[in-house]
Amino acid sequence: MHTVLVLGGYGNFGAYISRALAQDDNLRLLIAGRDEKKARRFAAEIGLPERQGIALDADVTSLARQLEAMAVNTVIHTAGPFQQQDYRVAQACIDAGCHYLDLADGRDFVAGIGKLDAAAHLAEVLVASGASSVPALSSAAVDYFLPEFSRLDSIRHAIVSGAKTPGLATLRAVLGYCGKPFMRLEKGLWKGVFGWQDLHRRRYPAPIGKRWLGNCDVPDLAVFAQRYPDVTTVTFHAGLGVPVAHLATWFFSWLVRWGIVNNMAEWAQSLHWISRRLEILGPQASAMHVELSGIDHQGRPLTRVWHILAGQHHGPHIPCGAAIALVRKLASGSVTERGAMPCVGLLTLDEYMGALVGLDIRQIHG
Fold first, then answer.
1. C-alpha count within 13 angstroms, C-beta hemisphere, residue 287
2. b/e for 36-55, b at 16 or more Cβ within 10 A?
3. What is the pLDDT of residues 59-71, one digit of tens each?
4. Are 17 and 87 spatial neighbours (Cβ–Cβ below 8 Å)?
5. What is the pLDDT of residues 240-294, one digit of tens each?
6. HSE on the CB side for 85, CA within 13 Å?
7. What is the pLDDT of residues 174-229, one digit of tens each?
8. Could you count the other beta carbons within 10 Å of the beta carbon of residue 206?
């Protein structure tokens, strides 16, 4: 039986993943976190024996030994924000001889995971970073349409959330680059832009409608430039479900850019409290789109647009699909890749969507 340990297993994303995997009879699931009582209580809540909820501190030097003692086959690391972390958990997994997946959305963290590639190959394990909406799902959508193009020129994509407030760690990560500069590829040149600026609106299919968007720094901006070498433009934007919250974030980005505020992440706890109370003003629906432009095999301009739409506040389940699908593939032995890499090319779009069956989530291909 394949033993899976979900680090942060009772947190926001960890809980979604754990609930899904608890239904798999061929998996032995361990719910891990710093608080043993919470871990045991949540394990019981999802139908597992309480003893499968355990206390585990990811920062301890004995982590590899503990994973080995528990005969863990795969660790799913959900305890962000990853922008402030190093690779000690991934390295511990390599040392313990078990696979490692994370839901990291930190650009440098995901893009730099390759430094562990030689060690992961030697240990014959898979170390995949960014098993989330970006870059796992976004790259799966690109790969789905890629055969239609003789030359792919641009990838423009975005995520718009519902009103449900993300976890505090996610909010800290999002605010960490608010008003801060980062680089992205535009028309073959690396251009500096600022987080949560470039304010504009985009219309999404019903029931989403028009949403505000702003610049966001994600792993795709670095990873896609390497994975799709002919591409000359890669952009990513995001939008908050409550319009006033998005416009406030845009306003705060100017305060950071002008040097009036140093880092909006320092305000995350207060803003999290406010956001929770504004949820009633926003929608339940959320969406993601990937727009590809280039040349088809007859030499004609070609554009393809893919959407994924979520209702009933089911959007936060979408980032969890990659870890769920990949663990199932690892348990069945159908993943042969080994080494350390960003989580691209490991899942097809159908495999990713298969992990979201039963939710109010649908695709539109255009």
1. 23
2. eebbbebbebbebebebbbe
3. 889 999 999 999 9
4. no
5. 888 888 998 999 999 999 999 888 878 777 877 777 776 676 678 999 999 999 9
6. 25
7. 788 899 999 999 999 999 999 999 999 999 999 999 999 999 999 999 999 999 99
8. 8
Residue-level length of the chain: 366
Distance CA 139, CA 153 (A): 15
pTM of the model: 0.94
Domains of the chain in start order, with CATH, are 2-133+316-356 (3.40.50.720), 134-310 (3.30.360.10)
CA distance to 20, 167, 230, per residue, from 13 (Å): 11, 9, 34
Q: How far apart are CA 31 and CA 24, in angstroms?
A: 15
The closest alpha carbon to 132, from 346, 361, 339, belongs to 346
> How does DSSP classify residue 264?
G
